[in-house]
Fold each of these.
Amino acid sequence: MAENTFMGVSREKIPWYPTIDYAKCDFCMECDKFCPHKVFERREGTPGLVVANPTNCVVFCRACSKACGPDAISFPNKTEITALIKRIREEEAAP
Amino acid sequence: MKHALLCCNGMDKALGGLAREVTLRCAEATGSEIICPVLLNNAPARYRQSLDTLPLVVIDGCATRCATKLATQAGARIERKLLVADEVKGAAVAPEKTLSPGPVGLELARQLAEALARELLAVGAEPAAEPATAPGFETPTDFLTVTHDKYIFRIPSAGYLFNENDCWVQVSGTRARVGVSDYVQQKLTDIIYYEPPKVGAVVEQFGEVGAIESTKAVLEVISPVSGVVVAVNPLLADSPGLVNEEPYTGGWIAELEITDLDSDAELLIDGAAYAAIVKKKAAEDSK
């Protein structure tokens, strides 16, 4: 089993991570300052901030979006992700 | 009832202009005192008496929550918060993006101010209804502990189920009580505000069931179970620190009428399994 898992499912198989809307982002870096998991990375040039480590993101956590003044961060639909996790668990449990 | 209203400065954002309009209109409707954020920052003693004697309402424009941070810096206890950005998301028509609100923005500000004023004027007018809490949630007596550096995290050994998002559920019949774990409350440090979910709200498993806010962060409480919110903890509005003091008992967040526990249980773990998760998280925290 992979080291990084959520409910027994490899984190790589769960597409839960933030998406930055660069039309709204003002590069205040509040999200990067907040996130202890190094999901974001500041870069020289444009864009100055990227989602560099998406699988570091804690599944179902949206705390960075709560710190985002311009509301530039979005996440996938929780219900769909929950259904996906259950489906993967069933498939992996099947003989 | 007269309150103290603290609004963000927000001069450079459209949401700030809306927050200012809401604040001015609400102050006029309720006879409340406006706290100037700039003056509070520069000369907090100016407002010491007001903050000590009047219930404080904080009105933030955007999620940067400057007014909330100012209130926290001033050591003030927040009675009620309004985040205009959230209200805008739920509005039927989007307000203009101009710094000075246009007709749509002014109408939204009027509606928000009226609703807030009604709520503030009702405070103290009628006794609060008794929460529809159900008996049967037993107090845990036996705990597993995870020790990491100077920290000791307690986890009830039985009677509670957890998700990997550090939230617990305790089930009694068709009712479930949810809350956050000792690990997460210690990580957040002092909790200063509790945003309850709406009674009657339908919550999916892993959906948001309220939020708690510390000086460090806002934490969305991620529901371990699906159901309908039937009660919120009435003590947390005045004493959000109960989540720090009694995370598994007095600091519960909400009660739900559960709808599909069998299915939800597939993605829940017991105390022993959660203890292993906490051990791993604590080790990663200190990296």
Amino acid sequence: MNVSASVPPLNSPNSDNIPTILDSLPDPEITEQLCPSRTRTQIDLMLLAIEALELTGSEAILSFAEELDLKGIIKNRVNLWQMRSSNPLRRAYIRRPLTVLEAKALVVITCYITRRLTVLIRQLLTIYQQLAEKQIPPEQNLRLATYLERFRAHFKSRMNPRRSGALSLTSDEKLDELAIDLLGKLLFCTGTAGMQRYWISLFDGEVE
Amino acid sequence: MNIQRKYSLPNCTLLLEGFTDVTKNVNYQEFRPELSILVNAECYLSSYTQPISGGREFFESLVRAVSGYAQEVFSNVPNPQAHNEDSGIVQLQQLDSNKHRLIIHGEITPTNNQSNAEAISEIAIDLNTVQLFDLVEAIDQFFADSQTLPELSLELHPVIRNYGGTSELLMKQAVPFTVGLSTLAVAAFAFTLVPPPKIQHQNVQEDQSSTKNTAVTPTNTPTTSENPKIEDLEALIKTVPQITDRNKIEELRRRVYNQIDPVWKNRSEVTEDIVYRLGVSADGSIVGYKAINQKANDLVNQTPLPSLLYNPVNRVANEPLAQFKVVFKKEGVLDVSSWGEYNTQNSNQNSNKPIREKIKDAILVKELQEKLSQSIRQNWSARPTFDKDLKYRVAVNKDGVISFYEPLHQDAFKYLADVPLKHMLSPANTPTGNNKEPLAHFKVVFSPKGDLEVTNWNGGD
């Protein structure tokens, strides 16, 4: 039996509501602890790629929020949608800031989901590589084609074509490229230090 | 005791061999002893037939470059750690979104022991994203292993805003396969970022290489074996922002002087001027030095520089640096100046002017001269024990307070305690102060007979 007194931990002065799972992600040196737009875009697109990988992706985000004790930050579906709509590429882009704490929670969840999908992600990337070497179009493989198709569909239905056009994401080929690029990034999230690497990279070029 | 550590992934196996440092580890009976001295690192990649291998320098370069590149994969923002072109042994380049090129310069021993010329080669290995991930993961598992080279730990920092543009330029300039030989020749000439390891390490390394021909880099030049951890200061300078604030530079210049001068012991060993180029971070830490003349290379261990180096493993990435020229003069006098002032290629309109403005008012200078002369006389009570004139350069502010002084020859240094300058130095004017006020410079001569001479400094030391 574990006998423990209810003494608050000594070394975390701001332990009020911040889940300890976020401790491994340091606060970036950005103004007001609000995420820059590139950070917001990247976080949302990574989640979009997860949704293209498994149909229940958005459910998984919420259930992981519960499992990882992040409900205090990602409260419900609407709340999650609002956070993701801070991505300026979205049709439903709302000028809502994304706090560093919210970003951390989404990054942690992304990494936990990708760890579960490691095998699938590796397989898809390997297939893509093999097809590319033989110069066979990726649509020839059913699993890869399904992922790319779903990603394009999600992207087109949720992103504002004028804004994504500015990033020259206009053709299906460009979207496939983006989908594969994101798949590679998801693979890197699965690693031992993947979560920290993903988190720090979100602020590349954003700090002085 | 030989220790092996293996980090195994489907496309990459990292094999580290080394020893426990018995002087450091008292309880080496523990179940999994610490690998603290790396002798050999081998990396087996599924896309390349032979392992790539090398000593500690190679391994540090590998983990730095791979770690930096992994961050670049995430953000698509060029990471300076991955593209250390001039001297980094390992570099990575993106060929396309699913193809990455690992380039290893020199520092590798091909398994069949070839002649030196052939050994200095360049290897390019193309990795797809999954293979690259396995390499990153093997390295991250190493980082996470606290019993293997614990001083090397994962350090992640966002790339600073300004880096992007310059590096794109650098990347465009990167022409694979052409850098090889010349780079190595330059790198071998004592660019040091880490203190030379203890003698013990070297013996271990040498023993090992003689028994095992695949083990360690052939350290053919004596300089490399003296300084196994070599990195290109110039390359570092290129990839990080420069400190440009002249007041900051002047502050750092004095900090460097104050760091080196008190601990420079064997002054008589220096028989000719030896010159180094130093990279110094904003907090005054010496992060790298490069010997400018051959003698400087030979005598580096007679200077305090190796012991003053700040270990870059813990250094903040992209930290801005200032460069200094440090001369250990044969007279036993230390001279520290901003590198830009001497580097004629970079000479700009300010290059020959002192960094801090001079007091121009001739009347004030005259007053200050008298004031300085008086105050030194008042403070100089000891009977001279020296038998030659002692000469110093002294700078004072408009109130006549000594801002800094420099002994101009060895005796002047030796008998510093006999003259009052040290006590007259204003603590407020020590290098930490962010002082912009102009100064007046004087030459001060103390004679053995007790005479004092204060004259206007007209340059040319």
